Amino acid sequence: MTPEEIVEFVTGLGGTIVVVASEENGDPEMAWGDTFFFYDPDGITVPERRLPFATIVTGNYPGFDEASDLDRDGVFRVNMWVGRETCDQYAPRNGTDIDYAVLDQVIPHPIYAKQSWLSVLNPGEATDGIVKELLTETHDRARARYEKRG
Fold first, then answer.
1. How far is 96 from 53, CA to CA, in rounded Å?
2. CA distance 43 to 14
3. Which of 14, 82, 117, 120 is deepest in the core (most CB within 10 A)?
């Protein structure tokens, strides 16, 4: 899957606002080019109150998020906020060493795993279907959270 295919898939789920971080948006330079997915079908949520349910990150955040070595040519990471049960299913917290730079494998997010975020670097043949399932789950969770807020 390419980042463009991921954007197409997620927007096809409906109600999604896609924001690409940029200088024009006033975003920090290290985030420029990263993609954030928000569920806001009416487009009425104040941007500062939106919480992303998935992201595509294209580079390291120096001093904060470097474990995936995203500065490699062509490497990106899709991140998905899933429930605790799903997170544990794909990325058990059993104290094993995790290679956060491995491609095409579901891994816990290097920073936000405790908040039930999973990641895949350059989803491919091994994870294409799983990533679509996880993106659908996280979209459903975001929709439920939006509807609960009323």
1. 26
2. 12
3. 120
Residue where the block lists tokens 């290290």: 30
Q: What pTM value is reported for the model?
A: 0.93
Residue by residue, DSSP assigns 84-148 as HHHHHHHS--SS----TT-BSSEEE-TTTGGGTEEEEES--TTTHHHHHHHHHHHHHHHHHHHHH
**Residue 75 DSSP one-character state:** -
* Angle at 136 (CA atoms; ends 19, 83), nearest 5 degrees: 95
Distance between CA atoms of residues 61 and 69, nearest Å: 10
**CA dist., res. 119 & res. 46, Å (int):** 27
For residues 51 and 25, give the distance between their C-alpha atoms in angstroms, rounded to a whole number: 16
Residue 19 has pLDDT above 90, yes or no: yes
Q: How far apart are CA 129 and CA 120, in angstroms?
A: 12
Model confidence over 66-108: pLDDT tens digits? 999 999 999 999 999 999 999 989 876 665 688 999 999 999 9
